[in-house]
Amino acid sequence: MQPRNMSMSGVVDLAALKAAGEAKVKAEQARAQRQEAGADTTAPPLVIEVTEATFESDVLQRSNEVPVVISFWADQAEQSKQLNTVLERLAGEYRGRFVLATAEVYANQMLFQQFGVQGVPAVFAVLAGQAMPLFQGAAPEDQVADVLDQLIEVAEQRFGIVGAEVDAGAPAEAQAPPPPRPATPQELALSAAHEALDAGDLGGAIQAYKNVLADEPANVEAKLGLAQAQLLHRVQDLDPRAVREAAANAPGDVAAQLAAADLDLVGGQVEDAFGRLVDTVRQAAGEERDTARLRLLELFDVIGPDDPRVAAARTALARVLF
């Protein structure tokens, strides 16, 4: 079975946004703390056997510093052991750009269930504490490497996580990661924006994200943060029951449909939100039609351009417009 495409976005998850923005800061803080404690003279192993007892320290905490790949395997499943051999070899070749954590399913039933594993081999990734599926089943080494390349790219671009490169063949004491670098002004501004969002200061967060985008218009993280902050700002004072009743009673009321779509998205009903606004664009005219179209584009930014639900909704919108 070939690895299925990874989906690194698509969930309206404010915890994920916060984690993505703060992961780089956490990584630098962790390295600095280890240096101060004199514990940074050796590099951590690139391959570990994880258990339920060590999952938090070996996987969740480390995922703030480096992508962690989890391979679920079983002794009687020969394919899973063969895949582990491939992943272990790649972990050495990638020299610290990801860490491999193997988990034997029968010894870790809780992890097996929490990750929703259907069978082995099954491979997941954890970035900044957020778990995501990579692929299930055996696969050729070159395809596995392609998936790992995607993971590493996403880790750096969306989460700011870059594993410290080590020399897998050198003695452990020679593999210390480089000293932490100072945060850039853009990183500090993003961190301030995330902190404002986390504190519930939505107005401050919106302005902070706009400040970042004024200097760096293509910053994907700031665009996502701004879209989510604006969404939360719009829905914070809404009465969900009243909004949904108004939308149901007045299908042609664009403002009512916009408010209901916002609530749909915040509630995780992504397809419903997109479908509602596509229908609104279809029925509306003039400025109201353009207002509904622009709101739909804003919600696309909340979910992320790579999500298949966004692609499907874009196609539906194009059919309506053209």
UniProtKB/TrEMBL annotation:
InterPro entries: Thioredoxin-like_sf (IPR036249), Thioredoxin_domain (IPR013766), TPR-like_helical_dom_sf (IPR011990). CDD domains: ybbN (cd02956). The keyword rRNA processing does not apply. It comes from the Bacteria. Residues 37-153 form the Thioredoxin domain. Pfam families: Thioredoxin, TPR_19, TPR_20. The keyword Repeat does not apply. Keywords: Redox-active center. Belongs to the thioredoxin family. This is Co-chaperone YbbN. It comes from Streptomyces polygonati. The lineage of its organism: Bacteria, Bacillati, Actinomycetota, Actinomycetes, Kitasatosporales.
